[in-house]
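User: These chains co-purify. Model them together.
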Amino acid sequence: MRVPPRVASWLQVAPMALVFTTMVLIPLGIITVVSFLDYDFARVFPEIYLGSWTDALTSPLTLSLYLTVFKFLLITLAITFVVGFWLAYFLVFHVESTGWRMGLLAAAAIPFWTPGPIRMVSWVPLLGKEGLVNKALMNAGITEAPLDWLLYSEFSVILAYCNLLTLAMLGPITHSMAKIPRSLIQAAQDAGAREWQIVRDVVLPLCKPGIAIGAIFIITAVLGDFFMIKIMSGGQINTPANAIATELAAFQYPPAAAKSVMLLVIVVVLITGLLRVVDIRKELQR
Amino acid sequence: MMRTARGRPPSFYVLATLMIALLIFLYAPMLCVYILSFQGPDGGMSFPMTGWSTHWFEVLFAGTGGQGIGDVPNSFKRSIRLAACVSVLSTIIAVSAGMAYRRKFPGSNFVFYSAIASMVLPSIFIGFGIALTFNLLGWQVNWFTSGIGAQLTWSLPFGLLIMFIVLGRFNPAYEEAATDLGANSGQRFRMIILPIILPGVIGIFVSSITSSYEENARTQLNVGLGNTMPMEITGILTGASTPVLFAIGTLTSLAMFAIILGAVALMTVMARRRANRPDA
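Assistant: Joint model of the two components:
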């Protein structure tokens, strides 16, 4: 029996479509509906109530939560982009052997085989009051007392994000950069361009897809994170995702739903903007 | 830039230093965990070491010490059970869907953008959504239904993207040759396509194991009774502050290393077998 190609494709893609429909799209619809419903401490009533939304949209707290998370996002994006771009440039244009290039990339990936929560704990012996960094600074006579802003602070949150996400930027940019034909660089060199001119006018514009993919990963990770920021800030810094987690823990479903939909809209707007720069499917298939 | 007769440019050394700095930044915290897990019995969460011992591993396995280290072995079992199911399902579903994308079909954009949405939507949103849906429908959340489902939303998008990479480099000439020789679609898949894309398939399998084992935000509301490893570790994190945490870290890292190195070894062996085959 022969099935038409179109039907064969449908059958092959059906299990995946089923998972995404039942586990992503239907829940998305339900969250949206619930955000408009009335509730008390334990239940959701099937009655329209706009309070969750007016609270979420008008509370000054919402604005300050988003300002906090966007501050972290922008700093993380800036650092991981600068480091990721220059290291990709190093791996693609300075390291000549493919073996070394793959080896260095693999070396950067191996620490991520250690599960996430453990990576968070690992900062204590380094940055804590009795940690190695404080001891080294005191031994060197640079500080007299242990610095307390090294851990459980904005600094440690940004440090943890950069630690986790630099590779998310480095990988896609390296992928894009490796596809730049060497002849282009050679031509620029022959025309008398200096190294920084080649980077600015040739390499940077041609890596835009990689940068966009890296940025998508980072936006998703930072805006959605409620766990790392809780651990690394010692519970002192709150973000929109944190606020949702807190309300979920208290079974306050409709307000949590309203805040979730708001966060979702913001993430989708940012990502859609970036998807205009890059066609992920084409980028991967080349 | 590229090396000239005058040797490496100064920028090489600046960037090499940056590379080394990144590697130190990535490795230093991990090394602290591995070393400190062998801390002496009186030692604490920071250096110096008060002698070397396996005390904290013993505490972990004995389940004694009253530091809230109750249920690590059972949590580990739950996580492994979940990871086994999720990795097998993800591999089958993603490979199958990848094959679908070799043709153009109506609805392909819908599934693709659902995958992207599933990947980029805040995890807490997805986890909450599934739990809420089950709640409103009056179904109990359970590791086997909502738990696996929630984890699939995280592993499948990556599986599909890996399939795009693998099939994008696939040379259709082999398959056409097989068709000309009279192979049917089942034979083509088994004897031509699968062997060629096998490294990618194993990649999907391994990435699904690790993503399942680590996933927490989508899973925690949906696994039903009992903690998984990330939940257990988070609990211990907030409760205990002894080197037991580091012992858990060393052991879970070892387990991950074994799984990943095993998979890489398997891939290397298979790639070599293919390269050595005279007719390949």
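The mean pLDDT of chain A is 86.
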